[in-house]
Amino acid sequence: MSREPQTLTPVEARILAVLIEKSKTTPDVYPLTVNSLAAGCNQKTSRDPVMNLSEAEIQASLEELRNRLLVLESYGASGRVLRYAHNFAKVYGVPSSAVDLLAVLMLRGPQTASELRANCERLHHFADASAVEAYLDELALREAAPLARKLPRQPGAREPRWAQLLCGEPAASQALDAVREAAPELADLAARVDKLERDIAELRALLVQGREPA
User: Fold this and answer.
1) Is the pLDDT of residue 40 over 90?
2) Nearest to 149 by CA among 188, 191, 110, 203
3) Is the pTM of this model over 0.85?
4) For the range 148-156, what are the long-range contacts, defined as Cβ-Cβ under 8 Å and sequence gap of 24 or more?
5) 3-class secondary-structure state, position 161
6) Could you tell me where in the chain the CATH 1.10.10.10 domains are found?
7) Which of 14, 25, 103, 195 would disulfide-bridge 20, Cβ 3.0–4.6 Å?
8) Fold held by 10-164
């Protein structure tokens, strides 16, 4: 049931990513109740950004996701408490391995292929970073609409990072990140240029006075 993807809100993306993650890491309690989902969404570790969502906010987003068939409801074995499961792979028409990569990108923000491989280990084992990049390339070249994008390599970085496009274009926020990360290097460069200019000025002054530099 592949369809053109719609832009997700940050809360919707967090909910979907948590459902995908917990379906692999805690299958014994999956599908999740709203309470369990809230705990996963507001987790302090392996989340960027860290959120503090209320159950009411989660419930409202679940309703929207259910209307778009991205979330399915069930009462589980007990038949008493409503539970939620994701339907991501069928709606977006992508393989399970790619779903896991997108989930980790939604949970942790832009990452390199090497970081994604390490952070995805509990969801899916990738042989190496090139295997991760192969799936990311497929997501980036998707005919329906790209779901991932390789970002420009940041100053001093060995590898480029990848971002998910489920929440829209990341360009503005990524440009800001690049400026922040480059700031220490730019400050160091400015200090060296300033020192060089002072040294040149001193040499010129010595030459005017007819003295040899020390």
Assistant:
1) yes
2) 110
3) no
4) 148/101, 148/102, 148/105, 151/110, 152/178, 154/178, 154/181, 154/182, 155/181, 155/182, 155/185, 156/181, 156/182, 156/185
5) strand
6) 10-164
7) 103
8) Arc Repressor Mutant, subunit A (1.10.10)
